[in-house]
């Protein structure tokens, strides 16, 4: 059989790769790379801010929560979103009027940066492909994240890659400076969480009419961050609560089951549980579509895992229970939140109703949780955090422009 010339082999590989992407056969965590590069060859972005989001659509929740704040930022400086997945691009375009472009080739990004006015790059996750944009020294790079929590990953060494990290409150500052070696705390800028505000007051629920929001996190990408309670607690917990007549709203994390088939199977079984007559009779339901704020506003108590949901529940001042991870390798440190709220072990999940009814009747941790709001989230008065975020972006742009002036326009010799 004659040898196939190298150029032909290259074209075959390219065609095969394109086919795999278009058929959606890539591994779940990989962006499809179906860019719109040809249409972007002459684009000269006038926006000063670029949000880089190379994630597949399952992770779109990370950026969706920022769209309102980014629209406000767009009014000041202009905001452009760059993705590396055509499916994610479609999801984002359905939710925002911001320009969203899918880029596959580094050469295309070169052109956008060189021709345009981009100066500040924002990142909401730690995807390895962030380095596609991080390599550009003419941009200021800021990590803004997608929620603050006591998870081990919240103090990731990856933060060192960014010029600044915008964090929610003092809890994040303390966590990061305690865990990271040789990290300059001046690179941390507390801005609060523009997505979080104190919900409207809710009348205390009676023991027989309370709604419990069960909002577990996903299983994580490695054993050290395996905090999910879906497999270890879920079935027993829901049966205990509904058996006591409590209404349960099950809100699984969007990535539940993404990395482990046993967790995916447990999630599917838990969803089916809500179709059982005895459970359905309590008004219990599965909730995957409503905004987080609505789900939080409608609940009297929340059970969650070590996750950002625990922090974002704090402004309600309502009772909170956090599960204890059952995975042996899960890394759980100490924190003011975890030391304050009741913890639920897997062995006690079948008696969860007892703990919940006690918390609804007698809530001794209320005063301590009230103090945690400021510690984790800063000032939650309406508009304060949004203003801090917008001003912080402006400060970085100003500092970047001042720092780059001498490099862009060197003095004549």
Describe the protein's architecture and organization.
The protein is of the alpha/beta class. α8 links the parallel β8 and β9. The relative contact order is 0.12. The chain has helices spanning 6-22, 61-64, 67-77, 86-93, 106-115, 131-134, 170-179, 234-243, 261-273, 277-280, 292-297, 308-313, 336-340, 352-361, 366-377, 384-408; strands at 49-53, 79-83, 100-102, 120-123, 140-143, 164-167, 188-190, 211-215, 247-250, 285-286, 301-304, 320-323, 343-344. 38% of the residues lie in helices and 12% in strands. The chain is globular, with a radius of gyration of 23 Å. The chain folds into two domains: 26-190, 3-Layer(aba) Sandwich (Rossmann fold), CATH 3.40.50; 211-377, Rossmann fold. It has 16 helices and 13 strands.
Which keywords apply here?
16 helices, Rossmann fold, 2 domains, 413 residues, alpha/beta, 6-stranded parallel sheet, 38% helix, 7-stranded parallel sheet, globular, 12% strand, single chain, 13 strands
What is the total domain count?
A: 2
CATH topology term of the largest domain = Rossmann fold
Q: How do the SSEs run, as a string of H and E?
A: HEHHEHEHEHEEHEEHEHHEHEHEHEHHH
Name the beta content range.
5-15%
- Rg over C-alpha atoms, rounded to the nearest angstrom: 23 Å
The CATH architecture of the largest domain would be 3-Layer(aba) Sandwich
Distance between the termini: 65 Å
> Uncertain runs with pLDDT below 50, 5 residues or more?
12-27
> Could you say which overall geometry the principal axes of the C-alpha atoms support?
globular
| CATH class categorisation of the largest domain | Alpha Beta
Physical arrangement of strands within the biggest beta sheet = 3-2-1-4-5-6-7
- Mind summarizing the main beta sheet? 7 strands, parallel
Number of strands: 13
Question: What structural class do you assign from the helix and strand content?
Answer: alpha/beta
